[in-house]
Design a protein that fits this description.
Layout: H1 44-47, H2 53-68, H3 75-78, H4 82-86, H5 91-106, H6 108-111, H7 117-130, H8 136-148, H9 155-158, H10 160-166, H11 172-185, H12 192-200, H13 202-205, H14 211-223, H15 229-241, H16 248-260, H17 266-278, H18 285-297, H19 303-309, H20 322-332
C-alpha cells in the first residue's frame, strides 16, 4: 500500500495524508477527520492517585468549603463549627475564609464541586492507606468531607480501630465532629464499647465544650441508646454557669434532652425556666413546645409562662401536630 506522507506530497505531522487510512489516497471515509496533536493531561491530583497527607487535607478543606458556601447547608452541621475546625491550625487562612465564602456564594452555580464515583473511591483508598500517617485533627476533617457528601465507601467502619487508639489525644472540636458522624453512620448497638470509651473521655475535654456542643453530645448518645445520667451530671454545672449566654434554640434543646434522660435535679430545670421566661419572644413554635413540655413533665410551675404567652399562643397552633395541639390547648385552657 502506498502512503502519501512526505511533506512535498502534503504529508507530515498533523496532515490528513499522514493519518493511517486503508486507501491509497485521501479520498476515503476518514478524509473529514482532522488530526490534532494534544498534550496528554495526567490529572493525577484530581483523583489523588499519588495524594500525600497535605493533598488529602487540602481536598477535604475544598470539599467542606463548597458545602459551607451553599445556602442550603443543614443547620445541623453549623453546630459543629466546621469553619473554626478547618482553620484552627492556620489563623491566616481562617481570616480569609469569610471573603472566600462570600465570593463562592455569588458564583456557586458556576464553581460548584461535582465529583464522580471514581474520585470518592480513590480518595477513600488513599485515606485508608495513609490513615496511620494522619494526625487525628486532619482525619476528623477528612471524615467530615465524606459525611457531608453522604458517601459511604467503608471509611467509617474501617476507621474505628484508628479512632479508638486516638481517643486520648482528641480535643473538644474533633470529639464532637467524630461523635456526630459515627453515631449516624455506624449500626446501632454494634459498637457500644467504642462509644462508651468516648463517653468516659468526656471529663478531659469538658473545658473546651460550649452549650451547643453539650446539647449535641447528649443527643448523639441518646440516639445510640446510651443515655447514661452521668453525662448529665457532668454537664449540668457548666450549663448553669453559662446560662446567661444561652439562646432560645439551645435552651429548648437542652431542656428537652435533659428531660429525656430523666434527669432529676429540679433546681436545674427551675434555672432553665427562669432563663427561658426572658427568652419567650425568641422561641419559635417547635422550640416553645419542647421547652414547656419538658418543664410540665418535670412538674415545674408554668403559671408565669402561661400568663405571658397566652395572647400570642394561637399563632403557634398551625405548626403543631394533633397531639401537640391537645397538650397546648390543655395547658392554656383553649377550646
Amino acid at each position: 500500500m502506498f502512503y502519501l506522507c512526505p511533506k512535498k506530497l502534503g504529508g507530515g505531522v498533523g496532515r490528513r495524508l499522514c493519518m493511517p487510512i486503508y486507501s491509497g489516497s485521501s479520498d476515503s471515509v476518514f478524509k473529514y477527520k482532522n488530526f490534532v496533536l494534544k498534550k496528554i493531561k495526567h490529572k493525577y491530583e484530581n483523583v489523588l492517585l499519588f495524594g500525600d497527607i497535605h493533598k488529602l487535607r487540602m481536598t477535604a478543606e475544598e470539599l467542606i468549603k463548597n458545602v459551607i458556601s451553599n445556602d442550603n447547608i443543614d443547620n445541623d452541621y453549623n453546630n459543629y463549627k466546621l469553619q473554626k475546625y478547618m482553620y484552627n491550625k492556620t489563623e491566616k487562612i481562617k481570616k480569609a475564609s469569610n471573603d472566600d465564602i462570600e465570593k463562592d456564594k455569588s458564583s456557586k452555580n458556576k464553581n460548584s464541586i461535582t465529583k464522580k464515583l471514581s474520585f470518592w473511591q480513590i480518595y477513600s483508598i488513599r485515606v485508608k492507606k495513609n490513615i496511620h500517617l494522619l494526625n487525628f485533627f486532619d482525619f476528623a476533617l477528612i471524615l467530615q468531607s465524606f459525611h457531608l457528601y453522604n458517601k459511604d465507601t467503608g471509611i467509617y467502619v474501617s476507621s474505628i480501630k484508628y479512632i479508638e487508639d486516638q481517643i486520648p489525644v482528641m480535643n473538644g472540636i474533633s470529639f464532637v465532629i467524630i461523635l456526630n458522624i459515627l453515631s449516624k453512620r455506624l449500626k446501632k448497638n454494634n459498637y457500644n464499647e467504642f462509644f462508651k470509651k468516648m463517653m468516659n473521655y468526656l471529663p478531659n475535654i469538658l473545658y473546651e465544650l460550649n452549650l451547643k456542643d453539650m446539647s449535641n453530645i447528649l443527643n448523639c448518645f441518646y440516639n445510640l441508646e446510651l443515655n447514661d445520667k452521668k453525662v448529665c451530671e457532668l454537664f449540668y454545672l457548666k450549663i448553669l454557669s453559662n446560662i446567661n449566654k444561652i439562646d432560645a434554640l439551645t435552651l429548648s434543646s437542652l431542656c428537652y434532652i435533659f428531660y429525656k434522660y430523666n434527669f432529676e435535679n429540679i433546681h436545674f430545670f427551675e434555672c432553665l425556666k427562669k432563663t427561658g421566661f426572658n427568652l419567650l419572644d425568641d422561641f419559635d413554635a417547635n422550640q416553645f413546645y419542647k421547652f414547656i413540655f419538658s418543664l410540665y413533665k418535670k412538674k415545674i410551675c408554668l403559671k408565669e409562662i402561661i400568663e405571658k404567652k397566652k395572647n400570642d399562643i394561637l399563632s403557634f397552633l398551625p405548626n403543631y401536630s394533633d397531639e401537640e395541639k391537645l397538650f397546648i390547648c390543655e395547658i392554656f385552657n383553649l377550646k
